[in-house]
Specification:
The protein is mainly alpha-helical. Helix content is 26%, strand content 6%. It contains four helices and two strands. The chain has a two-stranded antiparallel sheet. β1 and β2 form a beta hairpin. The longest helix is centred in the N-terminal third of the chain and has 19 residues. It comes from Pocillopora meandrina. This is Tesmin/TSO1-like CXC domain-containing protein.
């Protein structure tokens, strides 16, 4: 689920209604479904001993039960705050939002999907000999 969400988000299909649930949301949905199965499994019992829904994806507020959609944020804060460009070319000028902000382009950027004209604003961890520190 996590990898599919990431793939769809990268492909600019980030509208929430089009994304599959997060792992946290899926867990809560499974817990609610499991609780429903417990209830249905006891439908022929005269006085069933059914557990509280509280540990099964539900929480009580104002004497009413509400589904817990998730207990986790939809994405790490760093991803939510991430700058991404919509460039379709090489990101060689300051028209690129990432370059303009002094940031390398990432997998979220449109330009990183281009194979014909690869992005020129990618992070490089290669250090030139002139830039190396002489610690000896």
């Amino acid at each position: 689920v996590k990898e599919l969400r990431w793939l769809l988000f990268r492909k600019k299909q980030a509208q929430s209604e089009r994304l599959p649930p997060t792992r946290g949301a899926l867990l809560q949905a499974v817990l609610r479904a499991h609780y429903q199965a417990i209830v249905w499994d006891n439908d022929v019992v005269a006085n069933p001993d059914i557990p509280s829904p509280e540990n099964y994806g539900w929480e009580k507020s104002d004497n009413r039960w509400f589904p817990v959609m998730t207990r986790l944020p939809p994405a790490p804060e760093a991803i939510i705050q991430l700058v991404k460009c919509g460039c379709t070319k090489q990101c060689a000028s300051n028209r690129c939002q990432c370059r303009r902000n002094g940031l390398p382009c990432t997998d979220l950027c449109s330009c990183c999907d281009e194979e014909d004209e690869p992005c020129q604003n990618v992070f490089s961890d290669v250090v030139d000999d002139d830039e190396e520190c002489d610690d000896e």
